[in-house]
Amino acid sequence: MRAKKKKNNSFVYTLSILLVIAIGVGLYYYVLKPEMVLYDSLNQKYTEQQKYLTKLSTEQSQAKKEVERARTMKSLESKIPANADLQSIVDALDEVEYASSAAVTNIRFNNYEEETKEVLDEKSTSLTEAELFQVDGNELPISPLANQKKPEHLKLITMDLSVSAYDVKDLNRFINKIEKLSRLFIVDAVKYENTNEKEGLVTAKIQATTFYVETKSKKETTKVANEQKTVSK
């Protein structure tokens, strides 16, 4: 009797263990595993979204840098143009004359390029083309920056201006306006020659320097043009 009871207890115990195992397996496959799969899927999507957001943020940052670079380049191009463009210099000085009530009575250019000769269109300024290139016995103006180290294609144009005004304030206003032009100008030196306002006119010599970039393509174009002229002759 006891043996039979013991046998029954052993069977119940074994059945209980199998039932627990079956319940555990059922919970794993029907409850826990789907949740784990869902968790892994959500985690993967989250990771992918984070990567996408990081990529998007990087692209936005690069786009902002490109826009800022474009703005900087545009601003730089207006300050330092890609050619000498003496005509724009004359137009700028004409604008400064009007804003300051001073007048440029004479101007001499030094573009530091002996073989380069700019041809200007007809101007609204009071200066004639002959006056623009007038060179007397004096040496051409040379900027202190001429002998300093600078980028290869950065070129200088230095000008010597004779300016007249009714008072010193107008002369100083002329100088300030030059330095505030959209094109970059640096005033190298100022020499007041006549500051007696009672005589009705004050004058000054002003040396200023501006810049331009001579690109390689422009050099090559000029070289080809010169070669073609030589052949045609």
Describe the overall structure.
The chain is α+β, with helices and mostly antiparallel strands. The chain folds into two domains: 33-79; 86-216, 2-Layer Sandwich (Alpha-Beta Plaits), CATH 3.30.70. Helices cover 54% and strands 18% of the residues. It contains five helices and four strands, in the order ααβαβαββα. It has helices at residues 2-79, 86-100, 129-132, 168-179, 216-232; strands spanning 103-110, 154-165, 185-194, 202-213. Strands 1-2-4-3 form a four-stranded antiparallel β-sheet. Helix 2 crosses helix 4 (168-179). The chain is rod-shaped and about 135 Å long.
List strands and helices in order, with pairings.
Blueprint: H1 2-79, H2 86-100, E1 103-110, H3 129-132, E2 154-165, H4 168-179, E3 185-194, E4 202-213, H5 216-232
Antiparallel strand pairs: 1-2, 2-4, 3-4
